[in-house]
Write a structure and sequence with these properties.
Its EC number is 3.5.4.26, 1.1.1.193. With 333 residues, the chain is of the alpha/beta class. The chain is built from 10 helices and 13 strands. The protein binds NADP nicotinamide-adenine-dinucleotide phosphate. The site of NADP nicotinamide-adenine-dinucleotide phosphate has 27 residues, from strand 6, strand 7, helix 8 and helix 10.
Amino acid sequence: MNLEAAMRLAVQQAEKVKGTTYPNPPVGAVILDRDGEVAGVGATEPPGGPHAEVVALRRAGERAAGGTAVVALEPCNHHGRTPPCVDALVAAGVSAVAYAVADPNPIAAGGAARLAEEGMAVTAGVLADAVAGGPLREWLHKQRTGLPHVTWKFATSVDGRSAAADGSSQWITSEAARADVHRRRAVADAIVVGTGTVFVDDPALTARLPDGTLADRQPLRVVVGEREISHEARVLNDDSRTMVIRTRDPHEVVKALSDRTDVLLEGGPTLAGAFLRAGVINRILAYVAPILLGGPITAVDDVGVLSIAHAQRWRFDRIEPIGPDVLLSLIPG
Ligand SMILES: NC(=O)c1ccc[n+]([C@@H]2O[C@H](COP(=O)([O-])OP(=O)(O)OC[C@H]3O[C@@H](n4cnc5c(N)ncnc54)[C@H](OP(=O)(O)O)[C@@H]3O)[C@@H](O)[C@H]2O)c1
C-alpha cells in the first residue's frame, strides 16, 4: 500500500473517533510492515488512553520493525498523560514515518525532528489538505484561535426557504439527510439555537440513532436569546445538559463555549444571520431538498450585504448526494 492510500485509511480511523478525544485531537495511524502491507491500524483513544500511533503499533506487534508509520498528525514529543509517541515509534524499530500535518502545539511539537535524529526517514505533508480540512479541522481551529469551530447547519428547499409560510419546517429534508445530521450531532460538542426555534419547533436537540433511541454521546444544548423559554420546553429535558445564554451577541456565545471544539449552529434565519454578520461561522452545511416552498421565510436573514459587490464569498469544499437531497459543505472563500 502506498503512503497516500495508507493515509486515507488513517483518515477513516480518525473520523471514527471524532468527538471522543477532546482535548486531544482525533488522529488515525497505520503501520505498514517492511513489505508495505498493513500491519496495524489505530486511532486516538479517549483522554488518558493511548494515542493513535501506540494503538496501531500494539496491533502491528513485531511486524512494525523496519516498517513505516503513517499518521495524520506529527507524532508528539512530550510527556502528557501518556509518554511521547516518538519513543514508542523508536522502541518499535520503525524505519520511516509519514505524517500529514505538523503539530501546532509548541509543547507537543518537535516529533519529526526527533525522529529524523533517530535516523528515520520522515515525510511531511502526505494528504495534508484532506487531513487539515477533514478530521483535524475543528481541533486545528481551536489550537490556532482558542475558540471553538462553528458550523452553521441548516435544511433548505431548493429555493432557499427554511420553513413554509406558516412556519412549519419539519421535515424539509429526507430521513437519510436527518440521519446524517444526527450522526454529526453525536460527535459535536454543542448545538446552538435561538429562542425563536425553541418557541416554534420545540426541538429536543438530541443526537438520536435511526431507531429513535438516544446516541451514547450527547452534545451540550445551547439556547441563545433574551426571552425566557418555557420550563416545559423539550430542550430542557433530561436527555442532555442545556445552557441558556441570555444574550444576542454571537461573540459572547462563542466565548461562552471556548472550552468546546466543535459547535453546530442549528438556529433559524435570525440567529444564522447574526452569526454570519459577526463573522463567527467557519463552515456551512446546507442540506438542500428538491422541493419548492416559496414564501417569506428564507434560510437566513440579513447577513449585512447590501450590494452584490459585497456578497459574502464562500467556496464548496464538498458536494454529496444524501438520499434524494444534496449536502453542500462550504468554507470561507
Ligand atoms: N430549516 C432549518 O434548518 C431550520 C432550523 C432552525 C429553525 N428553523 C425555522 O426557523 C423558524 C424560527 O426562526 P427564528 O429566526 O425565530 O429562530 P432563531 O434564529 O433560532 O431564534 C431567533 C431568536 O434568537 C434570539 N437572538 C439571539 N441572538 C440574536 C441576534 N443577534 N439578533 C436577533 N435575535 C437574536 C432572538 O430572541 P430573543 O428575543 O429571545 O432575544 C430571536 O428572536 C421556525 O420556523 C423554524 O422552524 C429552520
